[in-house]
Amino acid sequence: MKLSKTEQAIALLTLSLGKADSENLKPLSIREWNDLSSWLKANDFDPAQLLEERANNIVSNFQSENGFVDRIDGLLNRGTTLAINLEKWERAGIWPCFRKSNDYPKLLRERLKKKTPPVIFCVGDITIADTSLIGMVGSRKPDDDDISFTEEFTNFVVKEGYNIVSGGAKGIDLKSSEIALLAGAKSVIFVADSLLKYSVSGDLREYIQEGNLTLLSASYPEAGFNVGLAMQRNKFIYCLSQKTMIVTCTPDKGGTWAGAIENSKNKWVDMYVQQSDKKGSGNMKLMEHGAIPISNSEDAFYQFLSEKNEQVEPVVVDEVSETVNQSGEILDYQDFLSKFEMLVADRFLPSNELLEQLSIKRKVLFEFLKQGIEEDKIKKKTSPVSYGLNIKKEEAQRELF
After folding, report:
1. What is the DSSP pairing of strand 213-217 with strand 119-123?
2. What radius of gyration do the chain's Cα atoms show?
3. Per-residue b/e over 105-120, b at no fewer than 16 CB within 10 Å?
4. What pLDDT shows up at residue 58?
5. Which of 15, 42, 100, 372 could be cross-linked to 378 through a Cys-Cys bond (beta carbons 3.0 to 4.6 Å apart)?
């Protein structure tokens, strides 16, 4: 597997190499790599130059913190270990896809933005990740009703031309991908761990070779099961999908619940949940977090596909006080409404222009917009996303006369 010098540097600095990692030699986190790569770009350096002898001089100008230069030097000196691992992974069909590459899944970059992993691992045809995917998540121990719902729903959406993205865990995730593949559709499985093990699985290999199944992972390909990795994987399923269906979950705990709450906070995609009043189920409780209930019927499935995504822009959490705008002025909801009404008048404006005109923090803006929409005072258009006054029909009719 041939990597460019730039790719070698990025891989050495950001990838875990299993036993080669140590407490004092941890790969750079996404935030650390973003900070370093932004600085390199601003100063006209290419990451490839870090492989040269003057790497220490470059890095010391960026970060003089004790131990950081030594850490970078140690990570860059793992070249032999990286080469051995790449050769082993290549034999299993595993290859690294870099964030800067045109092959990198577009929706991941668009939705995760600065949280996008610099490198993910792939097995199979990565272009499947850019097709119309429906996310499927749920319990590892579904009951008969849950399995029936999964079968009927999955068969319905693939018949309508969609493919499936799941996490590949036993239960709903793996079941939905299997149903899609058996029906002749395609699937992406974004695994949390053990990509090497998945890649050589006899049950999956045939679909990979036929070009119908793609395996992706943001973790070290030989990593064993880890709860933290499983939790981190959830966001990739949501961000690769057009919409995500939650078949079943346990309230307030477990990976399925955590993934739904994370999507609710970040507003990546619309999420739906199987209608269920079973004892111990968290399905209906997810409605409090924006999940839309869906019954097991063809009419409901058609409704699922026909409802247009809102394309809600992600909320960027700011550490500054949520009620203070950029000029330091306290801004409450009523003050916002009066300024919003004067600003939009008879037009709709996108959020970036509202941010600029109102000089308000992004998180505050989206909270106030959400409240205004819920109170029917603000209307949101989805193509393109923009906001204006919600003029009721009676008022509109009066204005016509």
Report:
1. antiparallel
2. 24
3. bebbeebbeeebbbbb
4. 84
5. 372
The CB-side HSE value for 319 (13 A sphere, CA atoms) comes to 0
Round to whole Å and give the CA distance between 395 and 393: 5
Report the distance separating Cα 188 and Cα 237, nearest Å: 9
pLDDT at 134 over 90: yes
pLDDT digits (tens, 9 = 90+) for 320-365: 333 334 333 435 777 788 778 877 777 888 887 787 777 677 778 8
Return the number of other C-beta atoms located less than 10 Å from residue 313's C-beta.
Answer: 15
Amino acid 241 reads: S
CA separation for the pair 354, 352 (Å, rounded): 5
DSSP labels for 330-388? B--HHHHHHHHHHHHTTS-B-HHHHHHHHT--HHHHHHHHHHHHHTTSEEEEETTEEEE
> What would the two tokens of residue 196 be?
């090497």
Residue 98 has pLDDT above 70, yes or no: yes
- Of 382, 396, 387, the C-alpha closest to 358 is 387
The Cα 294–Cα 306 span in angstroms is 13
Which CA distances in Å does 187 have to 139, 347, 400? 19, 42, 52
Q: Which of 154, 9, 136 is nearest to 72 (CA)?
A: 9
54: alpha, beta or left? (left if phi > 0; alpha if psi -120 to 50): alpha
Structure tokens that stand for 356 in this block: 């600029």
65 vs 376: which has the higher pLDDT: 376
Sign (positive/negative) of CA torsion 37, 40, 45, 49? negative
Residues 227-247 as b/e (b if ≥16 CB within 10 A, e otherwise) read: eebbebbbbbbbbbbbbbbbb
